[in-house]
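Repro case for the chain-ordering regression, as requested:
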Amino acid sequence: MLPSPLLVARVRRGFVNPVYAGMDEANLEAAKTLIDLFQKNIGKRKGGISDEVEQYEEVGFDYRFIRGLATLLERRCIFEAKSSLDSQNVRKLTFQEANKYRVVASQEDRAEILSRVADSLGVSVDEVEESLYGDLEDQLILKEFKPINPEDLLRQYNLSLTQTLLFKSTHLEFTVKGNWQRIFRKIKYLGLMYSAEAKPEGFWVAVDGPLSLFKLTERYGTSLAKLLPEIVEAEGWKIKASIVKGGDSAGGGGRVLQLELRSNEVGYLLKHAPPEPSSEGAFDSSVEERFSKNFQSLGFGWKLAREPEPLTAGTHVFIPDFSLQKDSAKVYLEIVGFWTQEYLERKVQKLQQLSGVDLIIAVDESLACSKLRRVKGKIIYYKRDVPLRPVVDFLREFEERHLTGQIATLKGREIKLEGDVVEIAGIAGRLGVSEEAVKRVLADRNTLGYRLIGDTLISEAKLAKIGLKLSMLQEKTLSKAVQLIEAEGVRNSDLIEALGYTVKWHGLDMEKAVLHKKTDVGHEKANG
Amino acid sequence: MYAALNYDRGTVLIRGDIKVPYSSWDPRVKAFRAMALYYKDIVDYLNRSEIQFDDHVLNPPPCPELRCSVRLRNYQQEALNSWCKAGRRGVIVLPTGAGKTVIALKAISEANIPAIVVVPTLDLVEQWRVRLTKEFKVEVGVYGGGENTLKPLTVSTYDSAYLRIEELGNRFPLIVFDEVHHLPAQGYSQIAEMFASPMRMGLTATYERPDGYHMELPRLVGGKVYELPPEALAGKHLSTYTLHKVFVELTPREQEEYDRLYKVFTDYLKSNNITLRSPTDFQHFIMRTGRDRNARKALLARNRALEIALNAQAKIDTLKKILSENPSERVLTFTQHNQLVYRISRELLIPAITHKTVKEERSEILHNFKTGNYRTIITSKVLDEGIDIPDATMAIILSGTGSRREFIQRLGRILRKKEDKKARLIEIVSRETAETKISQRRIRRQDEKDIRVRK
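-- result from build under test --
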């Protein structure tokens, strides 16, 4: 964040845009020059450094850019007073001594006073002179400077510029893919309010404060600016904000301008360093971490995702710990670790507002509370670790229920079969149900003229044709057979067997694997 | 019909089956919401309409008996009576030095409830803290200058109150705005809008603001309930003063440099057909400096020219002379620029107070000035308002901005009544510079508006 006079922004047709420092050579050079300037001035006075910076303000760059960079660099510095004497005390002694005079009219008077103070402190006159106002900002000495690379400095500058613009914002809305937990935690921490909604283009959040209901106020601008880094840290963000420009000291007048930013356009100018590799390791608790590991090593067909998109529960959002997904079936898992009575009650209240959502709650057994039983969904009690067994059982049962539900929706609906080869996945996609549901329904229906082989329906005519061609094949190697089948427009690993052949392997080479008619098997055995 | 009122971060949430005045539906929480400013009106409405309601808005800290035994002068008592009659809301306008503080003390004592006093500067925070502690014999809470303590009697700067409205807004049934003309500024007005305090008192010597926003005060605090012009008290409770003006010349070198720099500025204006007649014109010019390199050069040249005029060596010499010729006077010297403050402090070894001076050192200097250990203080703007230095007998202005209010308050600094003293105000101005104009503007306005008797 920068002092507002250093803001550089362009206004056009009701829109305002920060003038970002691009990653071009000139800007990188300027950044590097200033970084070096601070580096080489360690041990020098702050006033002198400022004077040097000022020279660069006049050489072709916008002075606000140079001063902005310098402001950010100053924050990486530690300044301290040169003299070890307590300046405040030196002043007190000096002024009291000087008060014995009507006025300190001459240099001689002044020297006499200072030398008396020096004597009383047992130091030199120069040291008194030095420390008299040695604690003023200009006089401080640069003790330490924490270096930064030019690219990062420019990114920090761009982010600060955006934040400075947001100081004057009355309202902020955004969509973003991820980082939910931290974003909502920050919103709460900053005392802001939000409205949230799942929209087709993504989960949408609007942020302002209690007073925003009554007036356009910049009151929450600083907090909105503080929220920005959490948003740009995520992937795929879009931001819209209303910025007040101008107006008088009492907040009258002024115009409201729109700010719109997208990560795919300016993200690379704002975001610091690529996301840290620890993003996967950042679990809220070790219970969550262990569960995640154990579940994934199960290889059970259900995909586990941490911190999925928020769910709206009444006027709140709720971010479950995990989502578990298989095809169109989606279940959420929330692990309740430590809790207090109020925490649990609030949680229950929140969860009760989640309608149409399937949720498993895992509660530490020793902390189990009868209140949680009232929550819709499955409750699993655990000690130390969330057990996989009940989760898996629940998912299986859920899948079955989900399937039954889907089969029920397919009841009475016609399933058209066209062409020689029909993929089940295609039908499932078209009808918006799982493949398993389609298979089960088809099994009960008349699919005259077709056979279900693996995940594909193939016409009897096609099967006959392929069967005939196979039987006429001179060399019945597997590779030849596969070639033949694929030439007929079918890719199906179960087909060969369905046509009554087995494959006899000789090593791993497909050329050497040979097809045998199942009836041949006995014959071969007899021979052998 | 039923309603429950709760405080939520500067607003009142109304849950129930009715809509009350001043409230709007907030879909974010599915309840009606109103600015805390209207808390009293809402309660009055519910009472008048005989609607049952639960009120959880105010949450004052546990409070001991708050009694003090200050005595009011007649006009102070009249002022307090008018405020009470107006429903314990409204602004009292009294000249600087007429004793506004004691009116607030009495109001707190009579109400005997937790109260917060909001003031513009850290000096005033300290002054109120000392006074409240002494009169009520309780520990006083402070917000500002790095302190954050909440007590039944609390003093805060406008800045800290603004920043902490959310948490402080329902803790005090009574709020006192000292120097209330600051309140209708952007941001600050939210203190009044977001505090729920039903009782509100504003105190000031200068009700009007140049920008006209004092029109907001009736809504924020209550209207003007009492006013006494300075003339009514002059000679009786306040000391009178005389005004001198001393012109100094720039040294030839200063003059040459000044002319050269000022020409850069005027040449730029001329060649770009810019006239600067109003503050708005000047603002436009400043905005231009962001995109026009030459405009920026012109601005820097102008600033350096003004710096020369403000920092003229002759001014310091004149200051020396005045100090030397008036050994028995207690002198406050004002100048607008910190740079000059420190230069004089270094050269003449006079204690200095600026906005950078830490609280501890500032108290030390003020204390030593009061006890006579220091005869002179040099300061920039921080002592502008309300700070109590009754021992000052002379004020010297070395530079200024030409603002009318600032001028009155600087005068007020030495207007305090002390036996039969006649205070002296001396202004030192460089001749033939842009600064002369600023000073003329200031004196003219003062002649017109302040010395003339208002009824």
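Ordering looks correct now. DSSP finds 16 helices and 19 strands in chain B.
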